[in-house]
Amino acid sequence: MAVTYEAGPTGFGLQRVLRAAGIRCEVAAPSKLQKPSGDRVKTDAKDAVHLARLLRLDEITPVAIPSVDQEAARDLVRAREDCRGDLMRARHRLSKLLLRHGIVYYGGNAWTGKHDTWLRHHAAPQLRTRATRLAFDSDYETVLMVKARRDRLDTAIGEMASESEFTELVRRLGCLRGVSTLTGFALAVEIGDWHRFTGNTIGSFVGLVPSEYSSGSSRVQGSITKTGNTHVRRLLVEAAWHHRARYTVGKTMRDRWELAPAAARVRPDEGNRRLHQRWAKFIERRKRHTIANVAIARELAGWCWSLAVLEEHPQH
After folding, report:
1. Fewer beta carbons below 10 Å: N end or C end of the chain?
2. Mean local confidence (pLDDT), 122-147
3. Is the pLDDT of residue 31 over 90?
4. Residue 232 and residue 86: Cα distance in Å, rounded?
5. Model pTM greater than 0.70?
6. Same domain for 247 and 154?
């Protein structure tokens, strides 16, 4: 007996129960399901028959099933990602409220300790009406509350990253520039089984490869596909920006290297130098920085893969 269902909000609990009962259960990747282009009628019954037919023909592309611990860790990093978005929106609401009243901060980077002092002692007193001041207090309180929640999640992730099944992997990934403990842990739990990929295919999995429209002798490449895991793609793109600056091995990097095995120190150093050289060449060619950074992020994904499977793939 074999059954299948599409991956979605129901999670993997059903798959685990069926597998424990000795029933083969495949969780199908929705983006990989073959559907007739002319079929414009969608019902639950038709979807079930279609899935059963694809399963019988062995044309189901299953998703990787995470362990219970991995899924729990994934829930934690996604809660942190949601909190990051909430904090960004709360900060935008507060800054735009002040902007509408002509109050702008010119003292350097925003959302620092200095900026917080400016908000409380300079910006707030300039609001003349009681209603606007109440709106400011509400938005400012929201920023503080969400930031405190984010900090608690950061602490929890840091503790789990230091003592869990992902610890060794996080330490190896942390030897690359731009990959902090939070980023490394998120990459580890989101991707899970790195052995599903190669250095070339992982870029496709996270949607960092160019789209293509080719026919005959014509080959046209467009923007990146943006398929796969959005969270992983954002982390890699943000990490790639760190490779633009001149590469120097500072104290923070050396401290991370001390936690990793010897083999995991040589490979990242090579990767850090290579990625910075790529950035230098893009700048020399006057490549648009956003496009260049995506190319760096795609190669960075390959370096992360090489570190994740380092024990089984000693050669790059």
Report:
1. N
2. 97
3. no
4. 18
5. yes
6. no
